[in-house]
Amino acid sequence: MHIGIDASRVAVAARTGTEHYTYELLAALAQLDQRNRYTLYCNTRPAALPPLGPNFALRAIPFPRLWSHARLSAELALHPPDTLFIPAHVLPLGAPLRRRRTVVTIHDMGYLHFPEAHTPMHRRYLRLSTLWSARAASHVIAISGATRDDLVRHAGIAPAKISVIHHGVSARFRPAGGAAQAAARARYGISQPYFFYIGTVQPRKNLARLIEAFAQALSGSPHLQAPGGDLQLVIAGKRGWLTEAIERRAAELSVADRVRFVGYVPDDDVPALLSGALGFVFPSLYEGFGMPVLEAMACGTPVLAANSSSLPEVAGTAALLVNPTDTAAIAGGMARLAANPELRAELRALGLARAAEFSWQRCAQATLQVLAGGA
C-alpha cells in the first residue's frame, strides 16, 4: 500500500501540540511498518525528522500560499497514493476527487468553545475547514472521546465514521535526576519549590485564574512559604493572544516576584523542569487531549488538572481534578499538594502507572489499522 502523509507540521522547529503528534506518530509508524510505502509531503524541508526506514520518502513541494488546497491537491492528482493521511485538520480540496481512502485527524473544535479566541474571519475558516475535512474524509481520527462527541454533536459526523485514538508519551519523558533538574532551573532562574505549567499562554488555558488561585493559596496558607524557600509558580510556553493581560495579573495581585514567565522551553529542558516541580498545574478550560498532563505524570510529577473537556478521560484517577472555573477550588488543590507529601507520593505513583498505559506504538498500530481500511 502507498500511504501519503501531510508532514508539513514537522517542518516547524519549535514544535507544540499538533507538531509533536505528527513527529511522534511518524517515528512510531517507521518502527512499526517496514512493509508499506510512505510519501511525506512538506512545503519546506523539515527542521528535523525522526529516524525513517527506506520505505519512507520525503517530497518537498514548496508553494507560497494555499499549500494544502492548491499545491498538495495538484501533487495528489498527478501522483495519487492509495491512502492519504492528514494528521492535523485540513483535508486538501482535491483529495476526495479520486478514488482513494482519506483519513484526517481532528484534534479539537476549540473555536466553538472559545470563539473569542479568533477573528470572525478565522473562526469562519476553522468552522468551514473542519466541517469540510470531517465530512469529506473516508474516516476521521479523534484524539479523545471529548473531541469525538463534539464532532458528532456539532458537525453531524456519524459515530461509526470516527475512531478515537489517544496520543502516546515520548520516551524522553521520564523522571530526571537531580543534576539535570538543577541545571534546568539555573538556565531559567527558577528556585525551589515551584508549581509548573507548560502550554501556550492564552486565555483558554485559564492562566489568569491560576495566578489568582496561587495568590489566594499564598495568602490563605502560611505553610506555603515553606522552609525550602518561597514557593513559585513557573509558567512556560509561547506567547499567544491576550498574553499581556495574563502577565499583568501577577503584578495586580502583588505576586509578580513569585510568578515567573519563562517563555518557550526547548524539548530537551521540559522533562527536567517537570521532574523538579512540586506539582504540575493544568486548569485549562478546554483541551482536545491535554498531552502535558501525561508528560508530567511520566516524569513522576503530581498533577492538578481541570475536571472538564478531555482531561478526566486522560488523567483518570491519577490526578487531583478541580472545577477550572472555581478559583477557590484551584487554590485549595494547590495548597493540598504543597502541604501534603503523602498526597504527592500517591499521585506520583498513580501518575507513573497511568502514563505507562499510553504509547506512541499503540497509537501507531491503531492509526495504521485505520489507514489500511480496518475501521
What would you say this structure looks like, in words?
The chain contains 14 helices and 13 strands. It has helices spanning 17-32, 67-78, 110-113, 120-136, 145-155, 178-188, 207-220, 243-252, 270-275, 291-298, 311-315, 327-339, 341-355, 360-371; strands at 2-6, 37-42, 56-60, 83-86, 101-106, 139-142, 162-164, 194-198, 232-236, 259-263, 279-282, 303-306, 320-322. With 375 residues, the protein is α/β, with parallel strands linked by helices. α7 (207-220) links the parallel β8 (194-198) and β9 (232-236). It folds into 2 domains: 2-168 and 359-371, Glycogen Phosphorylase B (Rossmann fold), CATH 3.40.50; 178-355, 3-Layer(aba) Sandwich (Rossmann fold), CATH 3.40.50. The protein is 41% helix and 16% strand. α1 packs across α14 (360-371).
The CATH H-level homologous superfamily of the largest domain? Glycogen Phosphorylase B
Beta-strand level of the residues, as a percent range?
Answer: 15-25%
So how many helices?
A: 14
| Percent range of helical residues | 40-55%
Q: Give the strand line-up of the largest sheet.
A: 3-2-1-4-5-6-7
